[in-house]
Amino acid sequence: MKIAVIGAGFTGLSAALKLSRNNQKVTVFEKERTLGGLAAGFKKKGWHWTLEKHYHHWFTNDQSALSLIKELGFQKDMLIPSPLTSVYFKKRISPFNSPKDVLTFPHLTVPERVRCAIVLAYLKILPVTLALNLEKTTAFKWLPKYFGNNIFNILWKPLFEGKFGPFASGVNMAWFWARIKKRTPKLVYLKGGYQRLLEKMAEEIKKNKGSVKLNTPFKKEKITDFDKIIFTAPSKIFTLLFPRLPPAYKKRLNSIPHLHALNLLLETPDKILENQYWLNINDRSFPFIGVIAHTNFVDKIHYGNKHLTWFANYLPPDHPYTKLTKEKLFKIYFPFIKKINPRFNLQPPTFSLHMFLGPFAQPVVLQNYSKIKPDFKTPVKNVFLANMDMVYPWDRGTNYAIELGFQVADEVLKS
Ligand SMILES: Cc1cc2nc3c(=O)[nH]c(=O)nc-3n(C[C@H](O)[C@H](O)[C@H](O)COP(=O)(O)OP(=O)(O)OC[C@H]3O[C@@H](n4cnc5c(N)ncnc54)[C@H](O)[C@@H]3O)c2cc1C
């Protein structure tokens, strides 16, 4: 079969890898100049490793990703550190890594800390079969009921409001469960960066006589050149590429809201966060929702000895920040970076700024999402859809992209 795969992110490359291993003639179309989509990396002069444009790590239970890494010969190149997570609230940074941190969290009373630890433990052990029922309610109803209002207002509400903005109160509880269920204290990174894995996948596809065309957006006119097509870009783009979809199907896909990811990356001679990798900002007067210090996770020696820190945001597509230059965005963020680290006082050009926008990066799963979750099969004959709207109840991630890519390849092979 001649098969076109649209998108060279992890979903598209995984699908193409499996199909090419099964002797199918695969062509991957990627509109960008690089592999990787949302997980794509870049490398500056003087760096030994690539860095993802948006912060990335794997959990130690990301089986599909870790198996692929091993299968492609990178087992000995896996780094498995235990970087620190903290919460910024009321001008104070408090650790939030372990049950011990929950039980000593300074902004809660002792009974609240115990309650918090018990509810988190309950969510952690709840199996997926039972957790799916949680989609019938919203996190905004479930969390205050079981954690109590104070814990909800301090720990969870600011994160939901920061991440989901106007959709915060509608996100279903199964999404929150999945976030708690998945977390592992140790995280995994690949020496060299995610790009190394992506390149190895593309290399094998080519070895299996497939082709990977970068800088080549898939155009409608090419549809008849192929027996099957797998589309792995966001659903919104699918509805634009295939405008004559049945209205009910189009309405269903378009009813899933998406947020863009906007990340400002600072490359600095000094540390911004002392020793934390991940800092949740639980103060909604801040213009960003998290600070992620990559070089408190991976040694800065690989990046020209500079400290790399992201300031993270998820925003609706029409948010004014998505139209700003990196300098203007930095100007807005600067006084708040100073609140986190009063010693931070650098002015360009003593440090570098990078800004990355990830379009439609985060699907928002509302109540009873499983009823509208898209399927691989679409109303267009021989055209399959496989994207991050379909990995629910799990949240978007490269582990699920790899799993999804393999699954859609099986579906195409069966058909
Ligand atoms: C801020 C942020 C942090 C994240 N952190 C993590 C993390 O820590 N760990 C983790 O595992 N995951 C993380 N993720 C999620 C992960 O990056 C994504 O879930 C995953 O990369 C999605 O892969 P994909 O192939 O499904 O989609 P995408 O990566 O979106 O790939 C789709 C591809 O299709 C291409 N395309 C679109 N239109 C066309 C067209 N017409 N023709 C050809 N090509 C087209 C796009 O350019 C893109 O390359 C994060 C994402 C973001 C945004």
Automatic annotation (TrEMBL):
<dbReference type="Pfam" id="PF01593">
    <property type="entry name" value="Amino_oxidase"/>
</dbReference>
<dbReference type="InterPro" id="IPR036188">
    <property type="entry name" value="FAD/NAD-bd_sf"/>
</dbReference>
<dbReference type="GO" id="GO:0016491">
    <property type="term" value="F:oxidoreductase activity"/>
</dbReference>
<feature type="domain" description="Amine oxidase">
    <location>
        <begin position="10"/>
        <end position="413"/>
    </location>
</feature>
<dbReference type="InterPro" id="IPR050464">
    <property type="entry name" value="Zeta_carotene_desat/Oxidored"/>
</dbReference>
<protein>
    <recommendedName>
        <fullName>Amine oxidase domain-containing protein</fullName>
    </recommendedName>
</protein>
<dbReference type="InterPro" id="IPR002937">
    <property type="entry name" value="Amino_oxidase"/>
</dbReference>
